[in-house]
Design goal:
Blueprint (H helix, E strand, L loop, with lengths): L17 E5 L3 H12 L3 E5 L8 H4 L8 H13 L3 E3 L6 H10 L2 E4 L5 E2 L12 E3 H12 L13 E4 L3 H11 L5 E4 L10 H9 L3 E3 L2 E8 L3 E12 L2 E4 L5 E4 L2 E4 L3 E2 L13 E2 L2 E2 L12 E3 L2 H4 L4 H19 L1
Parallel strand pairs: 1-2, 1-4, 2-3, 4-18, 6-14, 7-8, 7-14, 8-9
Antiparallel strand pairs: 5-15, 10-11, 11-12, 11-13, 16-17
Helix pairs in contact: 1-9, 5-6
The structure holds flavin-adenine dinucleotide.
The site of flavin-adenine dinucleotide has 39 residues, from helix 1, helix 2, helix 5, helix 6 and helix 9.
C-alpha cells in the first residue's frame, strides 16, 4: 500500500507550513501522503502503538496483509512524516495541536464497539468482537505479550465485516464457529465474505437474534429466536425460541464514532459526535477539517481513503 502517490518523494519543495493529522488510519494516511507531496510538514498523532488504524489492527492478516500496510507507513516515516504514537488526543492536547499547526485534520474513526442490549452480556466469555480483533492484532504484531485465546464453541452476533473477521480469527482457535445474523446473508455488505466463511466450516444462522445470554458465571449459551423485520423494527417469531450452547459470545453489531473532542468543545460543533463539516470538509473551527469514518460513520476502506484525500485537497487550497 502506498500513500505517497502524486509526486516523486525525493523532489518535494517545502511549503513552509505544518499540518497535523489526528488519527492515522487510511483516511489520515492518505491525507498525509497527499499533503507530503504538496510540501507540508506533517505531524501525525495516533493512540495506537503503530499507525494504520483498522487496516492494521481490525482486519486480520488473511484479508489485509499487514506487511503492505506497514510498508506504506514506513515510506511516510522515511520521507519525514513525524508520527506521535501511543498518543491519545483529547481536549487540551487537541487545542495545543490546533494552535501549533496551520491546519489540522481529524480522522479518528469509529472505535467504540456497540454492546448488545440483552441480559447476560456481563458473563465471562462475552466480548466485543472489535476488542478481540484488536487484542490479537496487537499480539500478532508483537505490541503485546498476550492475545485472547478461545476454545470450544464460539458464537458471533452480527453479519458485517467485523463479524466476518471475528469468525476468521475464531477459526484459528476452534472449528465450532457460528454466526447469528438478524438479517439474511444477501442483505449484508459482507455477503461474499460470509459465503466464503461457510466454505471454511462456519455455520451461519440468518434472521436470528439472541434474546439473552445464559450461564452462571460463565457463558453456557444463548437463547436464540428467529426474527422478522417490519421496517427497522425487529419482531421475534412466536414459538421460535431455543437454547444454543456456546462457550464464547463475540458481539459484532456495529461501531460508534470516537472523536478526540467532547461535544462542542474546541469550537468544533457536533451532532451525536459527528463533526459538522461544510462542503470543503472544514469543521465549525477554522483550520480544522474532518474525514473518514469519523464523518461518514463506519463504511469502506475506499470511502475513507477518498474522504481523506478530498479533505487534504481542501486543506491545501485553504493554506494557499
Ligand atoms: C473488523 C473490520 C473489518 C473491515 N473490513 C472491511 C473490508 O473488508 N472492506 C472495506 O472496504 N472496509 C472494511 N472495514 C471498514 C474499514 O476498515 C473502515 O471504513 C476504514 O478503515 C476507516 O478508515 P478511517 O481512517 O476513517 O478510520 P480508522 O482506520 O478507524 O483509523 C482511525 C485512527 O484514529 C486513531 N484514533 C482514534 N481515536 C484517537 C484519539 N483520540 N487520538 C489519536 N488517535 C485516535 C485510531 O487508533 C486509528 O488509527 C472493516 C472494518 C472493521 C472494523
Amino acid at each position: 500500500l502506498r500513500f505517497i502517490l502524486n509526486c516523486n518523494p525525493e523532489q518535494v519543495t517545502p511549503a513552509g507550513k505544518k499540518v497535523a493529522i489526528i488519527g492515522a488510519g487510511v483516511a489520515g494516511l492518505g491525507a498525509a501522503g497527499y499533503l507530503y507531496c504538496k510540501g507540508y510538514h506533517i505531524d501525525a498523532y495516533d493512540s495506537m502503538p503503530e499507525a494504520g488504524g483498522l487496516l492494521l489492527f481490525g482486519i486480520p492478516n488473511e484479508r489485509m496483509p499487514k506487511k503492505g500496510v506497514l510498508e506504506g507507513i514506513n515510506q511516510l516515516k522515511r520521507y519525514g512524516v513525524e508520527f506521535y504514537l501511543n498518543k491519545a488526543v483529547q481536549d487540551e492536547l487537541l487545542e495545543e495541536i490546533i494552535e501549533s499547526h496551520d491546519a489540522t485534520l481529524i480522522a479518528t474513526g469509529t472505535w467504540k464497539a456497540r454492546q448488545l442490549n440483552v441480559p447476560g452480556v456481563d458473563l465471562q466469555g462475552v466480548m466485543l468482537a472489535l476488542d478481540f480483533l484488536v487484542a490479537n492484532s496487537l499480539h500478532d504484531l508483537d505490541f503485546s505479550s498476550s492475545g485472547v485465546a478461545l476454545d470450544g464453541r464460539i458464537g458471533i452476533i452480527g453479519g458485517g465485516y467485523t463479524a466476518v473477521d471475528a469468525a476468521l480469527e475464531s477459526l484459528k482457535w476452534s472449528k465450532d464457529v457460528f454466526i447469528f445474523y438478524r438479517r439474511t446473508i444477501s442483505e449484508s455488505e459482507a455477503r461474499c465474505e460470509l459465503k466464503a466463511l461457510k466454505q471454511k466450516g462456519v455455520t451461519i444462522y440468518e434472521s436470528t437474534l439472541p434474546k439473552s445470554i445464559y450461564g452462571t458465571k460463565k457463558v453456557q449459551g444463548i437463547e436464540l429466536w428467529d426474527v422478522k423485520f417490519n421496517g427497522s423494527e425487529v419482531n421475534y417469531v412466536p414459538g421460535s425460541a431455543r437454547n444454543f450452547p456456546l462457550d464464547y459470545v463475540l458481539i459484532a453489531i456495529g461501531e460508534d464514532r470516537t472523536p478526540p473532542y467532547r461535544g462542542g468543545l474546541n469550537g468544533i460543533s457536533t451532532v451525536d459526535g459527528k463533526p459538522i463539516v461544510n462542503d470543503r470538509m472544514m469543521t465549525t473551527r477554522k483550520s480544522v477539517f474532518a474525514a473518514g469514518d469519523l464523518v461518514n460513520g463506519p463504511t469502506y476502506i475506499g470511502n475513507a481513503l477518498s474522504s481523506g484525500l478530498k479533505a487534504a485537497k481542501y486543506i491545501d487550497e485553504f493554506l494557499h
